[in-house]
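Incident log, support desk, overnight shift.

02:14 A customer reports that sequence design results differ from what the structure should imply. Their input is reproduced verbatim below. On-call engineer (initials T.W.) acknowledged and began investigating.
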């Protein structure tokens, strides 16, 4: 069974490598999300390319996503129920907070252009992508998810902790793991903890 890892905004596929290395999974795919599209850098365009990328999978996948990758994974599972056997959401919102997105974009605007080179996107495309997520809300479709769901969030990830607890309450086949002392990018700060959780599933 294939395991698929989707990274967050400000990250690349490389940020999952330590997690992947320590899992027991032999068949793993970890694409660079921002290299999937060369034209319209919006949430919908990246999602569309991901659907194309996995449309030929003959067996359900284990799908794990962090932050933006988690939102994409949640969306993908809702729309492709038969293609996901296990969903793992790390630091994920199911209703994107508009104020948080607007504040994030404010920070992006005052950051120097060179700060965005490491993520493979320009400053303008990063802002455009974040802005395109302002209206995302999967509240009314969470009930459509039938596969088991594992929710992981850092104890100090205050922006996503409430949403993680709400997801646990809204998804009957879910487990919630709150990682002590961890912040938002758990795949970078506590990769072994995520690997241990995944290996126990």
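02:41 Re-run completed on a clean worker. Output:
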């Amino acid at each position: 069974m294939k395991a698929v890892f989707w990274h967050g905004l400000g990250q690349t596929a490389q940020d999952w490598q330590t997690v992947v290395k320590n899992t027991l999974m032999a068949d793993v795919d970890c694409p660079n999300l921002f290299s999937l599209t060369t034209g319209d850098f919006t949430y919908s365009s990246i999602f569309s390319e991901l659907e194309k990328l996995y449309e030929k999978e003959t067996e359900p996948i284990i799908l794990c996503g962090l932050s933006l990758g988690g939102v994409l994974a949640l969306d993908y599972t809702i729309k492709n129920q038969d293609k996901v056997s296990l969903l793992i959401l790390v630091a994920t919102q199911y209703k994107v907070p508009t104020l948080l997105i607007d504040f994030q974009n404010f920070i992006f605007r005052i950051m120097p252009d060179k700060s965005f080179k490491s993520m493979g996107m320009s400053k303008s495309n990063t802002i455009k992508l974040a802005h395109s997520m302002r209206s995302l809300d999967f509240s009314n479709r969470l009930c459509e998810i039938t596969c088991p769901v594992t929710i992981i969030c850092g104890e100090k990830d205050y922006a996503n902790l409430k949403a993680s607890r709400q997801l646990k309450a809204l998804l009957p086949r879910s487990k919630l793991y709150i990682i002590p002392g961890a912040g938002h990018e758990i795949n970078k700060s506590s990769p072994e903890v995520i690997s241990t959780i995944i290996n126990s599933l």
